[in-house]
Amino acid sequence: MKQRASLFAAIGLLAFLQACSGGHSSAIPDVAPPASTTDTLPAEQNTDTVAPMSLTLGTTTYPTNAFMPSTTGKIQSFQIFDETSNGTISATAAATDGYRYSAVWGARPGLGTTWRASNSYLRSSYYFLMDTDLSTGAWGAIGHSLTWWQTYHPDWILYKCSTSTNAPTKLPAYDSGLPNVPLDIHNPAVVQYQIAQMAGPYAARNGYTALAADEVTYWIPATGGSGYYGCGIYSKGVFVRRYSSSTDPAWSTDVVNWAKAAHSILTTNTTLSPYHLKLIVNHPGGTMNTNEATLAANVDADMDETGFTQYGHYLTGANSTIREANWMKFMQAHGAAVLINQDWGSLTVGAAQRDYSAATYLLGNENAAAVFVTPHTGYGVETYYHPEYRAANLGSPCGEYYAGYGTLLYRKFAYGLVVVNAGGGVAYKAALPTGHTYTDLEGRSVYNPLTVNANDGYVLKTTNGCS
Q1: How far is CA 351 from CA 31, 41, 373, in A?
Q2: Pairwise CA distance, residues 362 & 459, whole Å
Q3: Within its chain, how far is the Cα of 179 from the centroid?
Q4: Short-list 67, 55, 58, 61, CA closest to 333
Q5: 461 forms bridges with which residues in the sheet?
Q6: pTM of the model
Q7: Distance CA 283, CA 34 (A)
Q8: Cβ(337)–Cβ(306) under 8 Å?
Q9: In terms of DSSP bridges, do strands 87-88 and 101-105 run parallel, antiparallel, or are they unpaired?
Q10: Rounded CA gap, 240 and 232, in Å?
Q11: What is the residue-wise DSSP string for 398-450?
Q12: String of DSSP letters for 111-154
């Protein structure tokens, strides 16, 4: 399974608690292009093609997605948070720059409406954790204390067991380092409380258009270190076990049922449904099964925090890269938009990293996907917005990606070609279709054949790319 850091971030006096996985031994080397091959990017325009479309490629039909306008052939961006320990995006910048993004994961209170000033289609989301109460110190401070829960709903609190003895404790199963009271998502009343507490009374009235649920994983988040996991509740003083391990399939079932219940409440509750709030989950990619299909059908967007970059460690080998691209397609085919976080950890994000991030994203982008490309210090700031992404429009894809020699993957577009080396250690020479002139999105030198280093990729612009 994929492991990832939590996206928990707090506003005001609370610290940004995200932990970063370590770095890679070395960055992919950038190749400085000759001056004659450097692209001149057109000026940004504050316009969007907003008409959604249904796209059929091969035997798969990708349904119109109400979460965002069509991203077919585009490198669409989104933003993670607008305030962390890394810095703050001002209200003025948010109002000006909203046109850049399809969504803001975790817009701070007061900016829900501001972000949409230049882009009415942007989804500004209220942040919370799926498996806990709402925050008591941030995000409107509309949650409750442990004392409150112990007084009014003691049997809604999730407690932890030891991973070594499996014995229950009287200790609440707090997500590691996070203060929110852990709740029993197996209980339908819990999700009813969560959605009712945040959706109408707070989120919609404060200009948010989506809810962003963190820690939506098929494994139980670590509690107090690796020695414990959330396992059960106490009902009238008697322990009731919910889960027998951190990977108990019962937890996966409860996660999917939580999404179904949340989606149902948002779309059918007569008080909340007029707000049309969308549901985004932070859920890792790669799984393609019945549970995943049901989850996709009951969320509006899935943000995969580890993406193709894995905090600078990359996915391991071509099969993992292909699985991630296929997962992107799977989710879009089942109705969910996909937000790919290309977090490079401690690595410098140069031309090669930007190229690889866009190229891998384009392998799986059909008509409802966006990407955020950053080192780990980029959460909460716009330092790593990439205008060349917005300026690029590769046109309709000629088909799905296909395999070349070794670990090379290709995808053709009407106005471009994507080449990715998905391997872990060997460079390959990629034969480019002849009869075309190519310029790289990031201004890197292009030759034919093109040497593509391990874990590298190119987005090449051309004309008549399908021929």
Answers
A1: 8, 15, 11
A2: 9
A3: 23
A4: 61
A5: 416, 439
A6: 0.88
A7: 41
A8: no
A9: unpaired
A10: 6
A11: SSS-EE-STTEEEEEETTEEEEEE--SS--EEEPPPSS---EETT-----SSE
A12: -TTGGGTT-TT-EEEEEEETTBPPPSSSTT--S--HHHHHHH-G
User: Do the Cβ atoms of 437 and 415 come closer than 8 Å?
Assistant: no
| Contact status, residue 260 vs residue 293, Cβ threshold 8 Å | no
Residue 37 structure tokens: 């091959």
Q: How many other C-beta atoms lie within 10 A of the C-beta of residue 162? A: 14
Beta pairing, strands 83-84 & 77-80: unpaired
Tokens for 178, please give them: 């996070």
Residues across the chain? 467
CB atoms within 10 A of CB 170: 8
Q: Which two tokens stand for residue 190?
A: 């819990």
Q: Report DSSP state, residue 183.
A: B
- Give Cβ neighbours of residue 148 (< 8 Å, ≥ 6 apart): none
Q: What is the largest CA-CA distance in the chain?
A: 76
State which H helix or E strand residue 324 sits in.
helix 317-333
Integer distance in angstroms from the first to the last C-alpha of the chain?
A: 40
Q: What is the pLDDT along the chain (467 residues), one digit of tens a residue?
A: 344 444 543 333 233 333 233 332 222 222 222 222 222 222 323 333 333 334 555 557 788 899 999 999 999 999 999 999 999 999 999 999 999 999 999 999 999 999 999 999 999 999 999 999 999 999 999 999 999 999 999 999 999 999 999 999 999 999 988 899 999 999 999 999 999 999 988 999 999 999 999 999 999 987 766 789 999 999 999 999 999 999 999 999 999 999 999 999 999 999 999 999 999 999 999 999 999 999 999 999 999 999 999 998 888 777 899 999 999 999 999 999 999 999 999 999 999 999 999 999 999 999 999 999 999 999 999 999 999 999 999 999 999 999 999 999 999 999 999 999 998 789 999 999 999 999 999 999 999 999 999 999 999 999 999 98
Answer whether 305's CB lies under 8 Å from 340's CB.
no
Question: How far is 345 from 377, CA to CA, in rounded Å?
Answer: 8
Please give the structure tokens belonging to residue 342.
């290309």
